[in-house]
Specification:
Layout lengths: L1 H17 L2 E8 L4 E8 H4 L3 H16 L5 E4 L1
Parallel strand pairs: 2-3
Antiparallel strand pairs: 1-2
GO biological process, one term: iron-sulfur cluster assembly
Pfam family, one: NifU
Family: Belongs to the NifU family.
Length: 73
């Protein structure tokens, strides 16, 4: 599943990079928890929680039904 998650993150990455940020995949657990780190401008942005839940988690859940949650570290 990690490869599938990475492929979806590559779809989201250009939008994050356009705003001076990025996303790093830290890991995927067997129970469907995706662990990421927002970096650059996204790491300190007050809207990072919305970005994480709506843009990242929403797209991952749409494309990979096994994903239960995305957590940022």
């Amino acid at each position: 599943m990690k490869e599938r998650v990475e492929a979806v993150l590559e779809q989201v990455r250009p939008a994050l990079q356009a705003d001076g940020g990025d996303i790093e995949l830290l890991g995927v657990t067997e129970d469907g928890i995706v662990k990421v780190q927002l970096t650059g401008a996204c790491g300190s942005c007050p809207f990072s929680t919305m970005t994480l839940k709506h843009a990242v988690e929403g797209r991952l859940k749409d494309q990979i039904p096994e994903v239960k949650e995305v957590q940022s570290f």
